[in-house]
Amino acid sequence: MSGLEPRLHAFRPEIADAKLMGKVDAKRFVEAISRRVVVPSAPLKRIPRPEASLDSEVLRGETFKVFEETGEGWSWGQLETDGYVGYVPTAALGSLVPEPSHRVTALRTFVYPGPDNKLPVLSNLSIGSRIALATETERLGTRYLLFSGGTGAVIASHVAPLDEPGEADFVAVSERFLETPYLWGGRTSLGLDCSALVQLSLAACGRAAPRDTDLQESMVGEAVEGGISGTLARGDLVYWRGHVGILADRQRVVHASGAHMKVVSEPLGKALKRIGRRFGVPTSVRRLTPL
Length: 291
Prior knowledge:
Elements: E1 15-17, E2 28-30, E3 33-37, E4 41-44, E5 56-59, E6 63-69, E7 74-79, E8 85-89, E9 93-94, E10 102-104, E11 108-111, E12 123-126, E13 130-131, E14 133-139, E15 142-147, E16 153-155, E17 159-161, H1 170-175, E18 187-188, E19 191-192, H2 194-203, H3 213-219, E20 222-223, E21 237-240, E22 243-247, E23 252-257, E24 262-267, H4 268-279, E25 284-287
Parallel strand pairs: 1-2
Antiparallel strand pairs: 3-6, 3-9, 4-5, 6-7, 7-8, 10-13, 10-17, 11-12, 14-15, 15-16, 18-19, 20-25, 21-22, 21-25, 22-23, 23-24
């Protein structure tokens, strides 16, 4: 095989993305079939087994490029949002129609059968989910948007059009996740890991980031001279081997902590001491470049 990163390029000895022909060895090359995620969220795994560890999650409305369907109910492919490769349940995927028009901007929101927040909830959607909405209506002073081509309504203030500019401060977005449970591989506001906190917070501001810490460290922003001993600033990303935190200022870090099993804001010095016992000193500090 080539030196391509398998988390970001769809190839296995048996099958590969047709775009990789001539770059990797595989028995067959296939064109992707794009599908839409039609459930609130679904697991993305490296191995197509229910008991396999969670690598990541896909969110409602995201596009998943399918290269192969197994006989056991899994689809192997690549998430268009961040390029991550893996298996998702085939039942979580559906038609590309209707095309999403809005994204969820609240940490999470409920889907109601109609424009009435006293109706039994159908599901909940996490920040970053994408949905197709059409008609706006109001009931008892609350504005709702109705789903296009189907049943459902969401609170209008919890979503924004896809073409509307994102939020300005990704650190403030990350702080909205405080107390969210830590979940290895999680990528929703019900549970997430350290790299997902960075990815989702940046995405809310219209900035893309890879899924895993090592990929982020090599692809996001620019290295701060001197690393953790350099001149630090709000929004800097502190990377350890296998972990990342977001600086709220020079003294505090926000991160999804496996030690606390939740998203916390804590003194940077305290975090450096505790994390250092396991992972050593930070490998780098990265600063976002202007868009």
